[in-house]
Structure formats: structure tokens, C-alpha cells
## 1
Amino acid sequence: MFDKTKSGGITYTFDTPDTVTAVEFCPLEQFSQLIAYGDCLRVSLGICRFQDEDSEIDGFEFEHLRDFHHGTRVTTIAWSPETSLETLPRQVKFCTAGADSKLRLFSSDLKSEDTVTVMDGHTSYVNDVVFEPTEGQQIASVSDDHTCRVWDLDGLQRACFPLYSPGMSVCWHPDEPAKLMVAEKKGTIRFYDLITHQPIMSLDAGHVTLMSADICFLDPVRIGCIANGNWMMWDSTRSSLPQENRQAHNEGGRNFRWSRVSENLFATTGQNEVKVFHLGHSQVPVSSSLPVTAGGLCWHATLPVCAVGGDGKVHLWMTVI
């Protein structure tokens, strides 16, 4: 069920039916063991248990919960804050983007009651999707169609922001629910006011091909991205230009995600590799190659564990803070 090696931290894996194209831990601390992962046909849910949380576990255990038919390749997954396993009926709620440019909102009691709401409006590939993190009553998505769209849970579009290039990442500000960050492929990161529907601030990565960006959950003035194989870092209170710019991957980067347990820890993926960086150290805590292009990138809500999808596996790295 799992492998354990000493190659840049401790590595675990669990098997999947097909090549994983997206993976996402539940960001809710009380349900941090939940993980969703998708491939070309389905979305699957499981539970990851680590020895750091339960001393009776020998390293790592994985339990598959169930599969949901998807019908098209899953490109990204977002968890709703309405997910709850504490009361009956249990409810898991998450949204996916598919290769058919549609969003799908899934809700399930993990037994017999499942609903799927299809959100149709984007005219090209959807690169990212996110829930409003406090109430979970809105979803934002960005696409190659040069738009960022905001939806309600009935699938109705509530806002549409025109972009100057493909939208690659969208993040709700963790402390200010009326503020949305959108990263564009041509290197601009803008913050939008969801009340006035106006841009309020922008950051400039230069003349690059930006592939992914993220807000630091623990220190939201920190913004990071991966562009042209380099990771870049901003203190958004200081300058619109990045304070740091360093190479991560020789053959270009794909994903950038901040850890949720340390403001100095973040991960990036390249064509066939994963790296974890710590701003306080020159040494790279994790540098690992993969046999296929990494499918997604995410962090555990309460542990320094990052995960990526692979060829019939999900790979997880336990790092040291």
C-alpha cells in the first residue's frame, strides 16, 4: 500500500487505478485526512493517516472511500468548507474542472445520496478553481478563455472579470473574503474587489510565462509563483516587483503551492520533478524525479506533507520544518 524511502525526506505512495491528473488535500484542519484525486474518468476520495498524528500507525496508511464518475479528465479540484464528517448525515462537497471546460460541483453523504451540478460558461480550458473559504457559497474559476468567473452553488454566474491573457491561478484571500487574486499567464497578478468588481492592486513578474501562483495562508502578504522555471516571491506591501527570483526547474515549472503549516515552506513541480524549498535554508528539503508529468500539487492542512499525482500512484513527501 505504501513505500517508504529516504530520498529527500520520507516518501509515501498509494496506488490509483490510472494516471492521476489532479490531487487535493481537504484544507479543513478537522478533516485534514481527506484527500481527493482525479484521472481521466473519475474523482476518488480517500483518507491518509500518518504516524505523526497517530502513534499506532506504522508510517502511513491509506483508505479508499469511494469513486465518482467524471466522464472527462479532471484538471483541478477544490474542497468546500461545508464538508463535514462530524454530524449525520455526513457531507463531502468539492468542485472539479474538467478537460471539457466545465465545472462540476459534487455533494455526497458517502452512501447513496449524490448530487452533481454542472457549471457551463467557460469557452476554453479551465486552469484553476477555488471556493470562498469562510461560507463556501461562491466558487471562482480561471481559464484559457481570458476570464475569471465567480459562480454561486446553483451554477449561476455572478461575475466575470476579463483578463489580458489566460488565467492560470485563482486564490481567495484567506483573511479578506471580498478580495480575489488572479494570476495571468503573461506575468501579471491582480487582486480584485468582489464588491466593486474592480482591480485594486497588481504584481508584475515581468515578461515571463507564468504557470501558477499562490497566496501564503499563514502570511497573506507573501505571494509566490512559478514562471519560466523560476520561483518568484513578493511582499505585496512593499513593491509590485518580486523581492526574490531563483531557478527551480531547468525545463520549466508547472505548479507553485505554499505549505499551510509554515510560512517559509513551499513546493514547485517541473516537467518530471518535485521540489520543496525552505526560505530559511539554502538546502532543498525535497528534490525528486517522477516517471510522468506531475498531476497537481497540494499540501496537508496540519502536517508538512505535500502530494502530487503520478503514473498510477499518488506520491507524498513528509518534510522537516
Note: Confidence is low (pLDDT under 50) at residues 1-7.
## 2
Amino acid sequence: MQSGGDYTNGFHGELQRDEKQVPILSALGRAKRRSRGGARDPRGGLTNGELRVSDQISEQKPLETQESPPPCTDFDVAYFHSYAHVGIHEEMIKDRSRTETYREAIMQHQNLIQDKVVVDVGCGTGILSIFCAQAGAKRVYAVDASDIAVQANEVVKANGLSDKVIVLHGRVEDVEIDEEVDVIISEWMGYMLLYESMLGSVITARDRWLKPGGLILPSHATLYMAPISHPDRYSHSIDFWRNVYGIDMSAMMQLAKQCAFEEPSVESISGETVLTWPEVVKHIDCQTIKIQELDSVTARYKFKSMMRAPMHGFAFWFDVEFSEPAKNTNATSVANGSSSISPFTEGNQKKRSNPSDALVLSTSPESPPTHWQQTIVYFYDPIDVEQDQVIEGSVTLSQSKENRRFMNIHLEYSSAGRSFVKESVMR
């Protein structure tokens, strides 16, 4: 998850640095998923050698650079460094729904990958790059700014794929690839889809290298939201303080609410906690979205409760779709708030009920759990709602000015003549 959202140049036998590359700051540590950084030793070189583009393409004319890349901030460095830890990659790879859906998507699009050039944005351990090589890719650029790129290089060599998979240790914004590519693959999604802002790196890779009509996997993403009732969570965290071993500790409740619900919570909920059909917050077409669109996303919503219950907050989850550009016929309807993908269907690997029949990876409450789970924005106090009662308002998700990988959440909601605002930051 993230952000991205996940990048110095290639290797041939061992990692080497391209002298033209913009230096990467030394790594620190932060974030939930997605590696992209490069530690340097005291002498100024990368700690595990230098990077260069493969000899196979060194004679080709470099593509024109469009504009200067954004600077690599200390926050970015900390984010990249956090992905050098093996535990993050273990968690992602062990998420079978995630990993197996990506492998299936690669094999479903084998005719577009075989004998083609691929870029894997935020390659981590290199597993998706290897899947692409196994599907017959002519060449795969595995890009990652984290020091995990060193291990990815070793994994590639151990599997006898050094002639096909070129590990580039650096940011997508900085590395050089001296040819256009046919395919971009990336597992860029963060919690609540947009947390970690890694999608911007996928967009950069697209604008720098992807051929017109090239394939991007996943091709689309959709963020959903819905109100929930979760009395067990509220009771566990808040009502507990009413009676503690026979002692009235209700004076602790206000502080407990602040500590428990100030920030969004990443957890798994069941479909039974959801009070209404979900609504679309943001639909993303990876072929056309611009980086500027990620600065701030605002959506209005109007729900009608399907039951009488206390409402404790809003849940957010997402789907991603793997389809070919020519078959993306539903983008308009989804962007306007209606999706032909049911948010509540069995299994993570879902298919659209239309001719495109695209593979979809879902993180909805009724799908098998993933490491993304769902993201819940809890209220400090629940709101009682009746069946068919309308809940309406707006949500704005924006990149934090403090750190663009953080996400500000501004929720306005009203029901039965009462209006509320909840603001939080996903750090």
C-alpha cells in the first residue's frame, strides 16, 4: 500500500550508477509499503555499488526529458528507507489475493507483454518483474528507490533472469531508460487508495516512457465510501472506561475518544457493519489522470440508511481493474458515480458484468481480507439514524503541505437537521 504508492540506473551483473543521475539523499525510515530511495556511503557512492543502464541499450539515443523532477525531500528519503525492511515486503507477498491477482493479470495480458519492454514502478523484491519475464517480456526495468533494490538484483540473478530484468536503483523521476516501453506495471495503491502518493510516480513513468496505446496494469482504480455502524469497536475502546473493576473511570472517556478516533483507523470490518450501498469518491483512469488531480479530491455523497442503528463513522475501500486500453468502456459511468462492478461480490478476483470482463482486485468489506484492509474515519460520538434516513455531505482528500505522502481528510456530514465536521490526518 501508497504511493505511491515504489526507483539510479540499471545493472548488468552488478548494480552500477549512471553518472548523469540526480543523487538520492541517504535513507531514513517511514511508511507502510512501497520502497523507493537509495542510501549512500560516506564517500558519496551508493552503498552497494553503482548503477548503469544495460549494455544492450546503451547505444540508443536517450528520450527527451520533459521537465526537472521534483526534489527528493527528507520525508521522501524516510519513506524510501522504510521499504528496505524485509517485513513490509513479506506482508505484501503473503497477501495472496494481491499477489495472485497481479500474476493472473500478467498472464491474461501475456499477448501484450511477450517480446515487449516493461517498467515495474516500485519493484520491491522484484516479484512482479519476474512474473513479467516469465510471461515472455523482452526486457523488464525493475525500478525502486529503496535499498531493497540490492536484494531484488540478487533475486533476479538467482532465477537466471539477469539478461531480461534490469534493476534500477533510484526514483522513477531520476533514473534514465533510453527507450520507450510498452507496459507499465505497479502495485502503487496505499491505504485508502491514495495514501503515500505513489500514483504520481506511475504517472511520471507513463509520461516519460510509455508508448501511445501502451498497457498500464492496473488500468483503473475506484475509491468507495459508506457509513458504518460498529458498536463493538466503540464499546471496546470507549465504553470500557465506564466501569473498570468496579471503579467509575468515565472521566477517561473524552481522552479515550481523542486517542482512539483522532486519526483514521486501518482495520478489517464485515459487510454487516455497512449501513448503505457505497458511493464512489474517486475513479482513476491510469491512462489519462494528471499529477495535479492528486493534490486534492472532493466528492459529494448522499446515502440512505438501510437500517436503524448508531452510525460510528465512514469506511473507505477500493477496487483496481486490469484491462486493456481499447476495452476500457466504462470509465465515464464510473467517474460519474455509478460502477458496473458490484462493491459487494464474493472473492477478491471479480469480473465486470459487461463485455470487457476485466479482472478486478477488491478490498471491500465482503471480499477476502487483504493487507490494505479498510480505512475507517470514526466520529468521536455516534449518531443514531433511522431506516431510510438520509446522510449527506462531502469529503475532501488532500496531500498534506507538511509531507505530500500524508493525507488530510475533511468530512462534512449532516443528517436529521444536524451538521458535523470531522478532520483528520493519515500519517
Note: The chain has ten helices and 18 strands.
## 3
Amino acid sequence: MRRFARVALLCLGCGVCSLLYGFSQLALSLEQEPGGGREGQARDPGARRQAGAGRVAAGSAGRGESGAGRCKNLSVSFWNSYWMLPSDVCGMNCFWEAAFRYDYMKTHPSEKMHLAVVACGERLEETVTMLRSAIIFSIKPLQFHIFAEDQLHESFKDILDDFPYEGKVNYTLYPITFPTESAAEWKKLFKPCASQRLFLPLILKNVDSLLYVDTDILFLRPVDDIWSFLGKFNSTQIAAMAPEHEEPRIGWYNRFARHPYYGVTGINSGVMLMNMTRIRKKYFKNDMTPVRLQWGEILMPLLKKYKLNITWGDQDLLNIMFFHNPESLYVFPCQWNYRPDHCIYGSNCKEAEEEVFIWR
């Protein structure tokens, strides 16, 4: 009996200490000066979800706006909880975001983020792994657009229908689709089905914005974070990609390409964020005719002119297009498309030395 009393007293003491520590952290966060407030967050599209969670906190706990702007660039997510972050990083809004996020999402449905992927051959498991990583970290609901060969459709359905993420994700399966008169030529360009991404703006006509990713990537941050780059586009930008290389001395395009390419080292299309409404409306400058051409008009002429000079298929065609229309591209840092060649010859992506957001 005496031993039981000692154990109970010890547990009670630990509980009191934990409670005191929690109150000390709460007091510290309330005493700190607000870091920019709601107005500062409104200017930063990447911080909108923290601002939204702060409003939930204000309504649910009457804490007002004192915690706004405290999370800085560190996201609070299922795998990155408030209490796992450094004490000097997050304020009250992070706590309330972690506590109320899922309830808030149920009562305040937000716009879906659209993610597209193309899977052919032996890419089923790789694609499913990528989709799981997108779901686990993300906050807003997701709409998957999966383009796959017919023999993969049933397997995708069996796996996706068993996903335990009801209400957070929907998906649509599509067949591989190319223009009838040139389907064989497009399908064999570079890798099987890879050039399907070029036709997404023409197929998904009712989708305003879209994130395309290759099957071999893993999300290490919420899709919401890269999606926020759409809010940073200026009036002329229609798409966002990362550079192909950071170091020109090991760059492929600047050393070997036999066609025009974007910037100093070209761009990599494995992660491509698109405002598809703008893409469909834009008339593109080109080196084939003085007349500007729309997206659906320029693809085949580009292929005919450069098919003997391109190595990386549709990525090369995108490089050519944005070489002639550089004002239309938003370039995001390499940590959003981190690849083995960023570290095989030393560290060639300085931003990724702090954190990698999308891994390939």
C-alpha cells in the first residue's frame, strides 16, 4: 500500500511539473512581441493557413491576434506538431493550429489543390508512395488526376479506394491521351507517356491551377507550401519550375544542348506548378513564325523542328518555349525539386542544406 502511494505521489508530481511547464511556455509566448500580425501574413500567400488557424484560435479560445506571425517558415502539420518545434519559433497561433486544424477543415471547406501524375509501365508502387506522401503532409483537400495505362487502372482503384483518408482526397483516373494524328510520336518521346504532361492544360479544361509531379518524388512538406507559389506569380507568369542545375560547370544544357533553353542552366520539369487558365489564354513567342501561337498550336511545330536535337523530350520543349517567353516563368529554389545530382559532386543546392521540401 505504501509503495502504491509513493507511485501515485510521483505521478502527481510529474503531472504538476508538466502543467507548470506548459503554463510557463504559454506565458512566454504571450509576453513576446507579435511578429508582424495579421497584416504581415496577408501579404505572404505562404502564411495564409497560419493566419486561418489564428482566426480559429481567436474564435475558439478568445486569445485574439497575439500569436499571429509566430510560426515563421516552419509549418505545423500532423508530422510536425507544435510541441515538436523549437520553443522560440512558434507562438500561440501554432498551438491552436495544431489543436483545431482538423475540426476547422471540416467546418470550413477550402479550395482543393489539384495534383497530376502520369504512370506507365512499372510505376504503380512508386506513384502510390508519392501520393501517400502528398496526403500525409498536406492540409487542404487534394484532387488527384492520375493518367495511367489501361492495365494499371484497376490496380490504382483497388489501392486508392482503401486509402484511410476519407474527406481529404479524391481522385480521377484518365487514359493516356495524345492527339490522334501524332499519338505514336508523342508516346515514344523520351520515356513512355512522359510527354503527357504537355497536354494537361488541353485535357483538364475545367482545372484552373495544377501541380504536376513525376512519379519518383516524395513530399517532405505540405503540398500547400508549393501551392502558395501561385499567389506569388506576377501578371505575366504562367508556370513555375526549378533550375536543372545550380552549378554551371556541371550543367547539362549549357554544355551539351543543341537547342535553346531557359536561363543559364535550363529548367527541370519533374515538378511543375501551372496556372492553366493563363496557359490556355497565352499566345507564345517562338522561332518558327512571327505570329504568336497558343499552347495547343505550338507543341507539334516545336516537335517537328527540334525532334532531332532534343534529348530529354518534353522537358526540352518546355525549355525552348520559356527561352522565348522568359517573362512567363516563375523559378522556385532547388529544394523544391531536390535530385541526386545536387549532391553527387558536392553540395550544389545551398537552400537544401537547411531543409529539403521535395525529394527525387
Note: Confidence is low (pLDDT under 50) at residues 30-108.
## 4
Amino acid sequence: MVSVRAMRSTRLLCLFNARAVNCTKTLLQPRAGCNVCYERNLCTSPSRRQGSMAAWVIHQCGSNEVLKFSKEVSVPLINSSRDVMIKVCAASLNPLDVSMRGGYGANLLKFRRDPMSLMEDGSQFPLILGRDLSGVVVDCGSEVTHFTPGDEVWAAVPPWKQGSLAEFVTLSEYEVSLKPKLLSHAEAASIPYVASTALSSLVNAGGLCRDSCSNKRVLITGGSGGVGTFSIQLLKAWGAHVTVTCSQNAEGLVRGLGADEVVDYTAGGAAAHLEMMEKFDVILDNVGGETEQWALDLLKPWSGAKYVTLVTPFLVNIDSMGLLDGMFSSGWTLSNKALKILPVVEAQFPFSQVPKAFQKLEQGHARGKTVVRVEEDDDNDRRQGEELAVNNCTENRQSEQVRQTA
């Protein structure tokens, strides 16, 4: 029997360090005409449009009261030839945002943003949260080939970059995709981060794919949240048999998405009920805690069955024990534990009510995603603003080319 933790050390090291060399080169060797601001990793090149934007920021870790609204946050301008600047139309919240607000992973994420800042207290602030976005491209680096200003896109923002609870975000073109035309910005913003999490968990850690899911039995604990609702649909499309645990009032939702069997964890005796079922090939655990004490016994023996959990101590250990000790401790813990999608939007909040959106998320018992409308969906005003932003950036690039030619 093999048990795998979804956010295992190799996965996290890949996430946080895959581009470490390139990141260091960018920090130490900024391109000509660009002065890098290390605190926010922004570009202050005079050739780019400058100014301030509105954003929700935190200046310290804590609970909801640390969220502060500001209209004086510097716009994250292009500082790489492969960067894309996006005007955010909608963002969504994930449990990771609540954890990061409380300081989860602060040391490792600070190191990933700027390796030279590890010994500096508070260098990760001000921090903008938000890992999902849907919006419109307003500017591109000189070597961007996949996008042009005006393109509608969606993206999952890496946790070491400034987030999407802001008017603008700058990402590498490789972190951005064209938004499906049939989805609104609010719907599109609910998908990217849970999609990447679910795919990584089920494919990389769980060993599942379209060609291997037939007759596979998969258990998803806490299946009514963002990752769960995405995973149900994906697994059913691949032909798997899916059992879900959730509260009784979410049963209609998960069955509607395709779940074959549903167990109400609020009724008591959920573990005993699951033990009477046929054993599982893969368990995707969105809950953690006591679930880990009985979940391993539900796996098929001697069959390569896998337990995949999204609740990992990796970043917590690094915060409490330091970089190296945290990594070794997490590796030890991991090895001993052994080893077409519909958007589901539960609630939407205007940009002015981000703290209320966090409160909703923290209540738990999610029925999909919580979305923040960064830009209200007034089509005329929205299109005019996008066209103005695109025209301004096009004029800036043309002026830069003229200066370079001269």
C-alpha cells in the first residue's frame, strides 16, 4: 500500500524553487532601463505607465482586521520581457489565503520572493492576497508571444507573488491562459487555483488519468468545496466511481455534479459507514485532522492504493523550525504517512467587501467558491476602461520603440 501526500516535499520544492535560478538572475540583473523594487518586485521603468491602484493589503499577519484597503498601492508594472500585466475583473478566495493572512508559509514564501530578504523581519509586507483571477491583458513584455492587449485571460497566482485582490496583477505569460469565452469573469475566477490543485493531487500524486480511471474507486472527503467540486466532475468524466463525504445540505450539489455515493459526516459514524463499503484505490482528503486516523484503513491492500491529502505540515514546520529543519521534519512526516468542468460559485462580493468574503470563507462548509468582483460588471464602463488602458499601453510601447530607434 502506498500513501502519498498531495503537497509532498517534492511537489512543494518544485513549486517554490523551480525557477529559483531565473528569479535570482532577474533580481540581480534587471534589464536595461528598469530599476527593480525588491519589496514588491515591481519595475519603475520610466517607459511604462506609472501610478497607483486600489488593493487590499496586509502589513502584518493576523485575523480579518489586518486587511486594509488602499488606493495608494504601486501598479505592478512590466519588469520582464515575458511579463503580462492584467486588469483584474474578478478574483476568488481559497483556504490558502486565510492561512497566508495568518502567516502560513511566511518564511519560505519570503525566501522564494527574494532570497536576500530571508534575514529581514517584515520584508514580505505589504502583501496582497488572492490566488485566482480573471481579467483583461493591458500590457505585455517585448517577448510575449501568446497574448496581446485586450485578451481576456484567467490565471492562478503563485503564492510567492502579489495576489489578485487588486486592480492590476503582473504575471509571466506562462502563468496565464485565455479565458473560455462562455464563462463570465466571476465564473472563470472560481476555477484556476482549485483546478491546478486538483490536477496535481489526482494526477501527480494519485497517479490517475483519463486512461487509468475506469473502475477506480475514489473517496473525496470534504467534497463540496472548490477542490472537491472540481475533482468530482473531472473524475466522473474519466470514468471513476466517486464517493464523497459532506454535510447533508450539500448532498444535492455533489450528486448533481456526478457523485455516486454520498456520506453525511455530520450525522456521526461516517468512518464506520465508509468501512462497510468496498475499499478505495485513491483517497483525496480535503479535511485532515482526525480523518487521517481512519482513512488509511479504507484503502485497498497490496494494490498501490494512495492516500492524498491537501493538509500538509510542510510550511508550518518551516515557519516553526527554520528552513532546513522544517524541510527535514516535513519529509519525515510525509514518508511516515507513507507515502468538461462547471464553475461552482457559492457567493459573490463586491471589491469593497473583501473582509466579508473572508468571513464567509472562514465559516467553512463551502458549497463551491467565494468570488470577489474587483470590477463591477457594467459592460459600457468596463469596455471603455479596458480600451483606454490598452490604448495607453500601446502608445507607451510605440514611444519606447521610437526612442530606441532614435
Note: The longest helix spans residues 379-405.
